[in-house]
Amino acid sequence: MPDRLLGLIKNDRFAMSALKAVEEVGPAKAYIAAGFIRNRYWDSLYAGVASEHDADIDVVYFDRTAVEKSRDIGYEQVLEHHSPTGMWQVRNQARMHMFGNHPPFTDLSGALCHWAETATTVGLRLTQAGDFQIIAPFGLDDLYDHILRITPSMKQHDAAGFDRRLAAKRWRERWPELTVVGA
Hints:
- This protein is an alpha/beta fold.
- It has one domain (about 1-145): 2-Layer Sandwich (Beta Polymerase, domain 2).
- The chain has eight helices and seven strands, in the order ααβαβαβαββαβααβ.
- The chain has a five-stranded mixed sheet with strand order 3-2-1-4-5.
- The mean pLDDT is about 90.
C-alpha cells in the first residue's frame, strides 16, 4: 500500500527536495507530515489538478532532551538557508502536550495521535540510505480512501475545533469528493 504514496512523492521534485533537506540538516529522525503529505496525495486523486505548493512544510520529531522552542526556530533557519523551498515549521512533539493540557507524550506516534485528523498524522522521512520511512499512527486507509476523520483525542477535547478547521481550510471546495467523518 505505501507504494501508492511513495510513487507520488518520488516523482515530486519539490517534495523530494524538502525530504532531502530535512535529512541533511534537520533534526535527527524527523518527518515531514500534515498537509504537505495529505494534500499531495488528495490532489493526485483529481484529474488535471496539480498539487498546490503548500504554505508551510511541517517537520516533526521527538527529542525529550532539548524541548526549547528556540531549537526549533534554529532548525527552521538552517532549513531555510539550506533549501529555501517553502516556509519551514519545525516542531519537537516532546513539548506539544503543553498546548492541549495533555500528559507528556512518550513518543512521536503518540504525539501525532493528538492532532486533529487521522489523514493529517501521516509523516514521511528519507533516510541517509535513501529509503523512505512512514509514520502513520492511524494507518494509511483514511489518506488512501480520501476520508477526513476526526481523531479520538480531538473529538474528546475540541470537537468544535475540527468543524472550525474544516470550514476555515475550505477542504470540501478543494476536494469535492472528500468524505468527512466528524464529531
